[in-house]
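2024-03-11 09:14:02 INFO worker-7 job=invfold-0412 stage=load source=structure_tokens
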């Protein structure tokens, strides 16, 4: 594959500094602005946006027919402005039409059920029967994740998932033509035997894909709409999956044939790699899960969940792009192919054409994930431009390719992968030479290169030049990527550019040998075994190196939340340093101080502004996240924050989901975690949260400690061990203890000191947040689970003043004493953290009946909810996300 410098030579000018490149970048910026505008104003329909685009195009056409020299310049600028406005409006309309509207005849449109008549905003399953073509092989349910996964009560799932491209929906009135795809979940014994490309009939419960329920969460419903996936069908009985009965349409038969061909190519490549890695009977050749996982991910894009710790380590070190198939992998493959083709002599346009064919074949072999296809299309566009034999600006080709890919998948604009792919490649094309000149100086024009007297000297000089180019490239890539990674993940790898230099040679060597091993194994599996042994050894060395780097303190820094504006400013500053570092040093140094001060200001004031608002009116906020059958409450006042519980039926919730939501709320770092009980509904994600949010203090009750002492193998014991291993302070509290939180105070009102019991409900902590306002004190009580004994004690003592807000869970059973307590408290507003499986059950119904005069919000209906106490004493309760589009 040609280097950045050869692309620049083919363009005849510095890439990105030509009129075609500027036009493509302006068009990309305008189209992307339209996508962002539509996401921010979802109520404007696509028809209105397209009408504006047509009007702007008409204005541009009229301005193009300018008459008279004095008005020519003004008309030209007005014409450009109209074209930009047309691109913005078209982008906004395209996003709405692409992901918010279902095409006529699609399965999503046929099964749209509308709003529920009883006012409950929840999706209820609908029994449907469909026929379609199996489009992808079955995959098992993801394994239980999280540090406390061993304590999960959920048994291993017997279900598998398969994707089906639908061609008919069967109702009482007969079959109807339908399009789109569904994900079918069924018993392993029924799903596994279904071959790719077979026609099947499925009956089961249909549910649409849910929208985002928490801040910072990926909106899977929009992603599914972009992919054409209508929802999921669950068929618990094997008899509900059968061969298709209707005639398969001709278009579906073409899809069937295509699916079979693709699956045979992919299975053949996977089998060839497995054959190369096959054990030979010698114990020394036994392949580990990590070896296989790394090599399958690197060469075929097939990820093994059992090797998830390796992927996480690559991600933290900023090296995940080396493991996941991306433009880097395809560039290496193209470089190998073109190097071999050049041994045959000058082939002219055939060289990029043959290379493009190989890249296209590779795209058919690996799974069609978005990053793989994005990288493949980009490389193919560059190769096509080379094969045309014309002078071109590679940055212009990249810009138009980016627009084409956004037309295909507009939501990729918000993807870190898309941003890094085009941002890094564009920066290399534009500033690759400038980066090398800034770090190592540029040779004077007209000078004659030094001739070396020996081959060894020439080789050493070439190696030093290659190393300097590689280092300059790595530093440029790191500088451009770091702000975006800080925005999305809150991570900074200060030495990622250097560690990449260490790992990169091993990755490239594995790819070269791996491709050769796959091709050789297709011919003779036994002959590929030596290459497989070398691959396994290289994989071991790479994994060991990355895991060793990951264990070094300070190589990964967790950052506070940063704004989009700061991210743009930091990225622009990094580009400016590489472009003008030698000529405008003082100005760039001053700009660096300003951007650094900006970051410090956001780090110090960001949490306070997020909790109090820009006007500082809010003195206390209580946010309840939607974690299903569990509870997780974020209480903030000023710049301080406390998390009360982090539990769910999903044990991996503390790895990504909760940290992302906390970052989106402006509280990336939470110093104190309060666990009100010891059941998984309150502690499932706690240990993972220790590592992702910087928890320094763990607050538990006496019952929690007693259970941990009496039962060393219990969940509380595991949580306390993990806390002590990380140096986290553990405080045991009881009634009367207080925690200062900004302008507010958290008071523990139950249980009394010395009354530790093994009953989880009666031993649960009851927390009341108190804050002073201009209208007097305001109270918010958090009670995840309250037993009858605790309820009677609270009724008699009056420890809880009449609260203005109650935060409950469905584990709060409204028995006689508990119901009397809730009625006596008389809170005007109540938030219930509950999963959809609990809604409608006896416990939830009795709980609601005990709150006859309260306005009730439930996470099952509204998603994440936040209550804000303002300085004037007023209280506002609002959902944090839109649950419907």
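2024-03-11 09:14:09 INFO worker-7 stage=emit residues=885
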């Amino acid at each position: 594959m040609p280097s950045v410098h050869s692309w620049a030579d083919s363009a005849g000018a510095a890439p990105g500094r030509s009129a075609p490149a500027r036009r493509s970048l302006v068009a990309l910026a305008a189209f992307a602005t339209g996508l962002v505008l539509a996401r921010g104003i979802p109520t404007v329909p696509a028809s209105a946006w397209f009408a504006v685009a047509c009007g702007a195009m008409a204005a541009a056409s009229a301005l193009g027919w300018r008459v008279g020299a004095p008005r020519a310049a003004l008309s030209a600028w007005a014409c450009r402005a109209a074209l930009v406005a047309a691109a913005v409006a078209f982008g906004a309309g395209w996003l709405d039409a692409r992901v918010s509207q279902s095409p006529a005849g699609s399965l999503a449109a046929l099964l749209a059920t509308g709003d529920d008549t009883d006012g409950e905003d929840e999706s209820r399953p609908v029994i449907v029967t469909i026929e379609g073509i199996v489009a992808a092989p079955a995959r098992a349910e993801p394994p239980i994740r999280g540090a406390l996964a061993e304590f999960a009560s959920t048994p291993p799932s017997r279900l598998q998932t398969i994707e089906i491209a639908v061609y008919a929906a069967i109702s009482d009135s007969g079959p109807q033509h339908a399009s789109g795809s569904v994900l079918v979940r069924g018993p392993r014994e029924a799903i596994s035997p279904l071959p790719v490309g077979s026609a099947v009939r499925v009956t089961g419960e249909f549910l649409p894909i849910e929208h985002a329920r928490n801040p910072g969460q990926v909106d899977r419903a929009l992603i599914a709409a972009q992919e054409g996936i209508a929802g999921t069908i669950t068929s618990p009985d094997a008899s509900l999956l059968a061969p298709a009965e209707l005639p398969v349409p001709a278009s579906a038969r073409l899809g069937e044939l295509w699916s079979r061909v693709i699956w045979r190519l992919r299975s053949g490549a996977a089998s060839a790699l497995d054959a190369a890695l096959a054990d030979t009977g010698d114990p020394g050749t036994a392949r580990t899960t990590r070896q296989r996982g790394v090599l399958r991910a690197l060469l075929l894009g097939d990820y093994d969940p059992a090797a998830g710790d390796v992927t996480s380590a690559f991600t933290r070190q900023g090296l995940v792009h080396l493991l996941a198939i991306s433009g880097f992998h395809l560039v290496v493959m193209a470089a190998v192919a073109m190097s071999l083709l050049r041994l045959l002599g000058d082939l002219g346009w055939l060289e990029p054409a043959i290379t493009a064919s190989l890249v296209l074949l590779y795209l058919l072999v690996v799974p069609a994930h978005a990053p793989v296809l994005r990288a493949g299309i980009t490389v193919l566009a560059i190769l096509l431009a080379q094969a045309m034999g014309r002078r071109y600006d590679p940055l212009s080709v990249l810009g138009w390719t980016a627009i084409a890919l956004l037309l295909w998948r507009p939501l990729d604009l918000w993807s870190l992968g898309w941003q890094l792919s085009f941002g890094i490649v564009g920066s290399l094309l534009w500033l690759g030479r400038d980066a090398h000149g800034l770090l190592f100086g540029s040779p004077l024009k007209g000078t004659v290169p030094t001739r070396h007297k020996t081959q060894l000297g020439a080789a050493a000089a070439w190696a030093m030049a290659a190393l300097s180019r590689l280092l300059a490239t790595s530093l440029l890539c790191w500088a451009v990527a770091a702000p975006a990674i800080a925005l999305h993940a809150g991570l900074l790898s200060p030495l990622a550019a250097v560690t990449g230099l260490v790992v990169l040679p091993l990755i490239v060597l594995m790819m070269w040998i791996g491709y050769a091993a796959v091709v050789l194994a297709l011919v003779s599996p036994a002959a590929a075994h030596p290459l497989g042994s070398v691959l396994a050894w290289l994989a071991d060395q790479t994994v060991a190196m990355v895991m060793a780097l990951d264990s070094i303190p300070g190589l990964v820094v967790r950052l506070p939340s940063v704004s989009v504006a700061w991210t743009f400013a930091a990225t622009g500053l990094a580009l400016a340093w590489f472009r003008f570092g030698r000529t405008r040093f003082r100005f760039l140094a001053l700009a660096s101080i300003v951007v650094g001060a900006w970051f410090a200001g956001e780090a110090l004031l960001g949490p306070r502004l997020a909790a109090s608002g820009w006007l500082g009116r809010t003195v206390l906020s209580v946010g309840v996240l939607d974690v299903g059958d569990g509870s997780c409450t974020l209480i903030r006042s000023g710049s301080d924050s406390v998390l009360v519980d982090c539990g769910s039926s999903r044990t991996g919730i503390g790895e990504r989901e909760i940290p992302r939501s906390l970052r989106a709320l402006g509280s990336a770092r939470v110093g104190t975690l309060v666990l009100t009980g010891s059941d998984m509904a309150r502690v499932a994600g706690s240990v993972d949260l220790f590592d992702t949010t910087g928890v320094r203090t763990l607050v538990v009750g006496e019952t929690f400690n007693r259970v941990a002492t009496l039962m060393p193998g219990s969940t509380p014991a595991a949580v306390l061990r993990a806390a002590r291993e990380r140096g986290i302070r553990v405080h045991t509290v009881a009634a009367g203890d207080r925690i200062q939180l900004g302008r507010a105070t958290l008071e523990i009102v139950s249980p009394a000191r010395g009354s530790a019991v093994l009953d989880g409900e009666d031993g649960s902590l009851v927390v009341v947040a108190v804050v002073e306002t201009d209208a007097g004190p305001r109270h918010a009580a958090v009670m995840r689970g309250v037993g009858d004994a605790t309820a009677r004690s609270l009724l008699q003592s009056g420890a809880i003043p009449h609260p203005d807000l109650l935060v409950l869970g469905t584990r709060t059973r409204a028995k006689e004493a508990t119901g009397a307590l809730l009625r006596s408290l008389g809170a005007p507003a109540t938030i219930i953290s509950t999963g959809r499986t609990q809604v409608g059950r006896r416990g939830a119904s009795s709980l609601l009946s005990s709150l006859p005069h309260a306005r009730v919000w439930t996470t099952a209906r509204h998603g994440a909810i936040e209550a804000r106490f303002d300085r004037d004493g007023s209280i506002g309760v609002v959902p944090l996300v839109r649950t419907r589009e």
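2024-03-11 09:14:09 INFO worker-7 stage=report msg="The CA atoms of residues 696 and 728 lie 5 Å apart."
2024-03-11 09:14:10 INFO worker-7 job finished
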